[in-house]
Amino acid sequence: MTARRWMYTAFIAVPLLFAVAGPLLARGAPDDRSAPFGPSPWSPFGTDRLGRDVLAAALTGGQTFLTVGLLTVLGAYLVGFLIGVSAAAAPRRWLDDLLMRPVDVLLCLPALLLIMVAALRTQGSAVAIACAIGLALVAPIARFVRMAAAGVVHGPVMNALRMQGESRGYRYGRYAVRAMARPIAADVGVRFTAAVYFLASANFLGLGFDTTSTDWAVSVAANKDALMIAPWSVLLPGALIVLLAVGTNLLVDDLLSDPRTRAAGARKRRPAAPPEVANSRRRRRPSRVGRHG
Question: Which residues are listed as membrane-spanning (predicted)?
């Protein structure tokens, strides 16, 4: 694993560690609250607007945020993938239009508008907001999957399999999975970042979780007025969100980069041989003229 990939993995590992092990680590924090935006007896990050320790709040505020984001992306991608693949493989044009024209209409609706309507209708239900975010993600996912699947379904390899009379469905499926794995995996990283963005925006606007929650986005929104006097109450949860979003995209891009591009980059980074070594190699190389007379 390269140093760059280790760095990207560390970007993701920090917020994941906060989310997974944070509640256990936060048990040592004092239950008594201190003065708002003042020093804390438990950590050097101080307290937030409710007098809670900033580090303890960050340790307990990631589980709900990450769980809702991951489930939203998985649900949206399941629906969008089925729509996109079905449209790409549709034997008739009217069936493709029947599947994709409602998606195009949904694509025109602002995502934040859907989230605001869901939040106001359900008094800020986290489930309703997650469904609204998933609905906003279904349309671009379906369009992307349809584009990626169309080149595979109607490509030369699939046509060759049909001409050979191949009747076993797993042959088609195996080739399609192998051909679509790279772009689909890269798109999942992008959609996860979008879900994090929408979820953070909803919480920042006060439409998501309870305003007294320790959720990272809620903490940023609730403490933003004290950025100058208590910066860690905003910077710490905000940095965790940024590390998660940026690290996910960078790691996915690095893992799914073209092997030929990686090989070319490795050759460029490889130090050139000294002139005397290069000259000795040329002298040792046998002559074609001498060998063939």
Answer: 65-90, 102-120, 126-145, 188-209, 229-252
